[in-house]
Specification:
Elements lengths: L11 H14 L3 H16 L3 E8 L4 E8 L3 H6 L2 E2 L8 H8 L3 E3 L13 E11 L2 E12 L6 H5 L2 H30 L11 H18 L3 E8 L2 H27 L5 E4 L4 E7 L3 H13 L11 E8 L6 H17 L5 E3 L2 E3 L6
Parallel strand pairs: 10-11
Antiparallel strand pairs: 1-2, 1-6, 2-3, 4-5, 5-6, 7-9, 7-10, 8-9, 11-12
């Protein structure tokens, strides 16, 4: 019978090579933290461990990964609330940014069953300032090991901080990308879709309506007396009028509809289905019911065009809607013109 080869403990260089590889090659934060926690526990001969990440917005430490922790203990100790004031050793270490030796591991609920604990903060340095990102906690079956062994835990915590910092930077970059993408598709004054977005949607909806033989309407809304509003009240009054019109448009359309700011004082409704005129008239009435501004009532002139009767391309539909809008404006405003036939708001053809 051959004898089993005894397990050889890792050398210092092997420990840190494995830790560096975990950070360099890891593309999942939890996996990276779990590997670093395992290496730290192995290096310090700890029986259990956990890593918490600080959510500064909520002022909470959130449990990220555990090592040999019972599921019920992890569930009970998933969050340390009020991290800036809590007496929990995890919060104290994060707040002080210094390692903390705990003689009674019962004070660290996630390490239930351990006798002692060692808590190391995860620290990032930005412009020379130390910032806490969380904590790494190790639980021991007996007394705390010597200072040299505990000091050996710090590099693993430092690498864990690097992993967390990188993940936060990537998340922030993703959020910024989404934010910039959103900015590219909305009008900054009103929060509605912008012309670029609705032009693209119009092309898609016209193509879909053509394929399916479905009805589609577009309506243009022009704020009546807009130049007068700006002349007497300034740009602030004009902006206020546009925002108030946009609010009614956004709140009053159906889920299938799209509303957008199309030009300076002009808005567009893209309404799939046969009810475009009904929706447009409701919007015109809703805007007319707004409380009067300093310079008088706010109303809009609206012109509507329908696919395929008034056109089969976006350009044809827009030309008809534009002419109808101008007709509504010349007729006194506050009304809808459909197929060049003027109707009072709420009236039927």
């Amino acid at each position: 019978m051959s004898k089993e080869t005894p397990h050889q403990p890792r050398s210092e260089s092997e420990f840190f090579a494995a830790a560096a590889a975990a950070v360099a090659r890891g593309d999942d934060l939890d996996d990276t933290l779990a590997e670093l926690l395992g290496l730290a526990a192995e290096r310090a001969t700890a029986r259990a461990g956990a890593v918490y990440i600080l959510d500064s917005d909520r002022d909470e430490l959130e449990l990220a990964v555990t090592l040999r922790v019972a599921p019920d203990a992890a569930a009970d100790a998933g969050t340390v609330k009020d991290a800036t004031t809590s007496h929990d050793p995890l919060a104290s270490a994060a707040r002080s940014r210094h390692p903390l030796e705990v003689d009674d591991a019962g004070r660290v609920p996630v390490l239930r069953g351990a006798k002692t604990a060692f808590v190391v903060p995860l620290i990032a340095r930005r412009d020379g300032i130390e910032i806490s990102l969380g904590t790494m906690a190790l639980g021991f079956a007996g007394p705390l090991p010597g200072g040299e062994i505990l000091a050996g835990v710090q590099p693993f915590a430092d690498l864990a901080a690097v992993a967390v910092e990188r993940a936060l930077a990537l998340a922030m970059g993703s959020e910024r990308a989404e934010w910039f993408d959103r900015l590219a598709n909305i009008d900054q004054l009103t929060g509605l879709a912008n012309r670029r977005t609705v032009d693209r949607l119009l092309e898609m909806e016209v193509a879909r309506a053509g394929r399916q033989g479905a009805a589609l309407s577009i309506a243009l809304f022009q704020v009546d007396r807009f130049e007068e509003i700006q002349r007497t009240g300034g740009n602030a009054a004009g902006d206020d009028a546009l925002r108030r019109v946009a609010q009614i448009l956004a709140e009053s359309v159906r889920l299938v509809d799209t509303v957008a700011r199309y030009a300076g004082d002009q808005f567009m409704l893209l309404a799939p289905g046969p009810d475009g005129l009904i929706v447009t008239e409701r919007l015109v009435r809703g805007i007319a019911a707004l409380p009067p501004a300093k310079d008088g009532a706010i109303t809009v002139s609206a012109g509507i065009a329908s696919f395929p009767m008034d056109g089969r391309t976006p350009e044809e539909l827009l030309a008809v809607a534009e002419r109808a809008t101008q007709s509504a404006s010349k007729a006194g405003g506050g009304r809808v013109v459909a197929e060049m036939a003027s109707t009072e708001p709420g009236a039927t053809d």
